[in-house]
Amino acid sequence: AGHGTWTGPTGDDYQGEYKRDKRNGVGCYKFAQGASGATYEGDFKDGKPHGTGVYTFRSGKKTMDQYRAGEEMSSSTYDEAKAADLVHRSRSAAGIAREASEKAQSVLDSCKAYAKDIMKMFP
């Protein structure tokens, strides 16, 4: 296990984590041929893309992809993926704020009831 680099016979290049002499963990794979000079930065397992990664094409276009054992499971443009993540985070933040507001209201109601009970003790 550790970090290393590799350059293939066609000029492909990998820099990243290795485990048992295979790409495992986070790394960057640059294609010299075939994928038009694309770069994949992301997760690897057993030498194959596995998990989340970002492809950057020579044109500058980026896609965010999900892989399982080297097979692409889903793909979206990088901007779409960032937007979906922001929507998810904003919904989560709104839910947390709503829950905090409900708890605060519950505490306030309890305090008001307690204050009324105390006031009854002093006619």
The largest β sheet comes out as: 7 strands, antiparallel
Order of helices and strands: EEEEEEEH
Number of domains: 1
> What fold name stands as the CATH topology?
Histone H3 K4-specific methyltransferase SET7/9 N-terminal domain
Q: Using the alpha-carbon principal axes, give the shape.
A: elongated
Outline the low-pLDDT stretches.
Answer: none
Distance between the termini: 77 Å
Q: What is the name of the CATH architecture?
A: Single Sheet
Content-based structural category: alpha+beta
Strand content: 35-45%
Q: Count up the helices.
A: 1
Average pLDDT works out at 80
Strand order of the largest sheet: 1-2-3-4-5-6-7
> How many strands?
7
CATH class, named Mainly Beta
Helix content: 25-40%
Roughly how many Å is the radius of gyration? 26 Å
List the helices and strands and how they pair.
Blueprint: E1 2-7, E2 13-19, E3 22-30, E4 39-45, E5 48-56, E6 62-68, E7 71-77, H1 78-120
Antiparallel strand pairs: 1-2, 2-3, 3-4, 4-5, 5-6, 6-7
